[in-house]
Amino acid sequence: MPRKYASLAERILANTMISDESFYNGTPCWIWMGKRNSSGYGQITRRYKRGPRKGKVGTFLVHRVAVQELGGRRLTAKSVAMHLCNNRLCCNPAHLKGGTQRQNVRQCVREGRHFTPFRKAA
User: Fold this and answer.
1) In 34-115, where does DSSP find H-type helix?
2) Which CATH number is associated with domain 8-110?
3) Where are the chain's structural domains?
């Protein structure tokens, strides 16, 4: 059976839509139109390339895969892909940056998106 897409990058691009409303640094967000997880992030399935699970199918966050496949940057297991545009469904590699969880939370607090439900008002 022939493959539907020649590469994973082509598959990501085929399942995105260029946004008319969301922009970052003058470039539009690429909105993921495929499956989403319960937190609202896009998901994609693909086969593992190496390791003990080689050949088995796994579910991955599409923005992490986009950073690696389209952006040409490597992410370790401990690093996160930070959305500079603050759009969970964006998979434009120009809007994504690798970093630590600490950096990601600090960016979230700095931009006013952090929610602390049990904090008492002063």
Assistant:
1) 62-69, 101-110
2) 3.90.75.20
3) 8-110
